[in-house]
Amino acid sequence: MNKGECAEMTLLIQAGVDGELAPAEAARVAAHLDQCPACADTESQLLALSGRLRRELPFYAAPDALHAAVRARIAAAAPAPKVRSPAAPVWRRLSWRNVWPVAPFGAGAAVAAVALLLLLPTGGGLPDAVVASHVRALQPGHLMDVVSTDQHTVKPWFDGRLDFAPPVKDFQREGFPLTGGRLDYLDERPVAALVYGRRQHLIDLYVWPEEGRPDVAPTSDSRNGYNMLRWRQGGMMFWAVSDLGAQELADFVRLWRAA
Amino acid sequence: MTGPGLTEFERVVLPHLDAAHNLARWLVADATLAEDIVQDAALRAFSYFSSYRGGDAKAWLLRIVRNLAYTALDARRRAGTTSLDDGTTADGEDHPAMQVPDAADDPEASLARREGFARLDRALATLPADLRECLVLRELEELSYKEVAQVTGVPVGTVMSRLWRARQALMQSGTEGRAP
Known about the structure:
By secondary structure, chain A is an alpha+beta fold. Chain A is about 45% helix and about 20% strand. Chain A has 2 domains: about 5-55, no CATH class; about 65-259, no CATH class.
């Protein structure tokens, strides 16, 4: 091979390794590599270096405290502060004519029916924030602060990290194993996030206290293909979010509420 | 409705906070300064957000981070404090990858990885800043050439030649990809 051609090839070989070549160029580079051992060696060195950089160098994900601090500072900087809509107007909008007793048969159906009747008061942006948080958590290395399938490990882990004790339950036998937990930040406060598996899907269950507020049955919602169910129980607010189908997520919530 | 654009900002920009922190950390090699930069960058991004016209939010945020990082480094240099590249290896024990036990690794493999990391990390730290930022943006942030060009404010051709020089330097420093 003449030197001129190889010199011209270098950046193209690199572009190939970086996945930046159009098919026609890629074919031209491949033809050259077939005949030129020196350039083929360059390519394999580039590939190996790239592999090592990604494998061995750390990706410095933002610590949870930084995520929380940024969210807090942005919320504070927003011209109109984020206000949770007060409960009363929503409750007043509920007409008792629309609320009839739902027999507790087939819990999934009951959940769905009740969901149509009761609206939970929420901050306008909270569903988006919950989904954004869930999506962020799905990024590599960010899902869990404590990895454990044991609720007796996960629960104490939250002690001292939160000003409340989130209930932690495991549903391994029912096919929703607890896989871990982390701290997150939602609705302007630190919250517990419990992570459950379901086949290759994940469920984030966000928990925070809302003491002195009435229990409310699950309400469903969805954003960008993620399903959500939220409910209030025993002075705690719960948001479950997942890419699971709405029915399976409702099954999970039914288990949780019954346990 | 919440403050103008707050929800949208949380949805569009905040998912890239990890990328922002990673870039800041690699550019300034100082954990505390990196966090300050990310906070400032996020606030700045929020105040500019009304002028954000869609497009690549990650590159948009990283460009703000990068500019703030260089401003902070300049300020520090003028103040005559520690040099830029100090601390990269000094606090190597601090970084998250070292703290998380990797169940898949046996101790020897993990040791080899630490040593490999230390060598690569040192080699990367000695690169000139303009080469290092290109490599970090491409390899760790996984940006395309076009996005790297957008973040660094140089043409794509310059990105390509900087990447090549950065890689050549690493390959020649004995940290090339051959198994040790």
